[in-house]
């Protein structure tokens, strides 16, 4: 009799423990945030001809293989992977931007809590800034890449990808605008740029500094972007099937109007002039830009100089020429903003306002 009741007590206790364990595991599975990883290619998905050599093919492996290389991600998030395109980011284009932005806006209305986009580093800053201006969500959106192919010794992709997911699922990452995670740094889309052609430590925010760092798998923020973005942005891709054509023209000694004339002939809607110094054009170039403006083309002055503002009220009379100055936007980001500005207006004063606010 005694033996039976001891047995029964043990089996009830055992069943209770199993039950508790199951409830706990279920609860744990429930709390893992759901994240979408949208893959576009790049060196992070690159495959090399050797483990040390530099020859490799960008965007060679798919999102499933990328994720399989970092199984630790499954411990912190429930992942849904999507292959949007599979390209080197030198081939990134407006159509992919529109597709990506529309897809994220759509997924943002579901229970997906955060987004990571794997991307080549060459044009990563442009995609990040475009999305920063058109996504209608305050859910975290993080772009990530790598400087070394996935097959290289000490590939930087797996750690960057893990950090990107950790950053994206962290509650403190909400509402900060689109970010790039590379080499332990959290970089804001409005300022981040690639600064070295081959180094792992290549991304920086030369004007405002990084938003923070990744430390032991946690984002530690030290700054908030002061520029308008995402839910506060006036730009939208909802009714867009293409973007207005804007070209960048580079400044240098002895520059001629050749490329401005060619751009006018090609029917561009806007020109970003990557001028010398504080976005200065030569006298002949300025004349060509003024006549382009008179024919209805929007002109934004930016600078080929790495950092600092391209400011109004300096050597160029922007009011008289009807130009806008790009302030802290480098030429490639100025192009992104000018394309979106032109979906709304071609008034240079309005365009100037946008360059101050975004
Ligand atoms: N060309 C590559 C790309 O941008 C370089 C990289 O990812 O680092 O796709």
Automatic annotation (TrEMBL):
<dbReference type="InterPro" id="IPR036152">
    <property type="entry name" value="Asp/glu_Ase-like_sf"/>
</dbReference>
<feature type="domain" description="L-asparaginase N-terminal">
    <location>
        <begin position="34"/>
        <end position="223"/>
    </location>
</feature>
<dbReference type="GO" id="GO:0004067">
    <property type="term" value="F:asparaginase activity"/>
</dbReference>
<comment type="similarity">
    <text>Belongs to the asparaginase 1 family.</text>
</comment>
<dbReference type="GO" id="GO:0006528">
    <property type="term" value="P:asparagine metabolic process"/>
</dbReference>
<dbReference type="Pfam" id="PF00710">
    <property type="entry name" value="Asparaginase"/>
</dbReference>
<dbReference type="InterPro" id="IPR037152">
    <property type="entry name" value="L-asparaginase_N_sf"/>
</dbReference>
<keyword id="KW-0378">Hydrolase</keyword>
<dbReference type="InterPro" id="IPR020827">
    <property type="entry name" value="Asparaginase/glutaminase_AS1"/>
</dbReference>
<feature type="binding site">
    <location>
        <position position="89"/>
    </location>
    <ligand>
        <name>substrate</name>
    </ligand>
</feature>
<dbReference type="Pfam" id="PF17763">
    <property type="entry name" value="Asparaginase_C"/>
</dbReference>
<feature type="active site">
    <location>
        <position position="43"/>
    </location>
</feature>
<feature type="binding site">
    <location>
        <begin position="121"/>
        <end position="122"/>
    </location>
    <ligand>
        <name>substrate</name>
    </ligand>
</feature>
<feature type="active site" description="O-isoaspartyl threonine intermediate">
    <location>
        <position position="43"/>
    </location>
</feature>
<dbReference type="InterPro" id="IPR027474">
    <property type="entry name" value="L-asparaginase_N"/>
</dbReference>
<dbReference type="InterPro" id="IPR027473">
    <property type="entry name" value="L-asparaginase_C"/>
</dbReference>
<protein>
    <submittedName>
        <fullName>L-asparaginase</fullName>
    </submittedName>
</protein>
<dbReference type="InterPro" id="IPR004550">
    <property type="entry name" value="AsnASE_II"/>
</dbReference>
<dbReference type="InterPro" id="IPR040919">
    <property type="entry name" value="Asparaginase_C"/>
</dbReference>
<feature type="domain" description="Asparaginase/glutaminase C-terminal">
    <location>
        <begin position="245"/>
        <end position="355"/>
    </location>
</feature>
<dbReference type="InterPro" id="IPR006034">
    <property type="entry name" value="Asparaginase/glutaminase-like"/>
</dbReference>
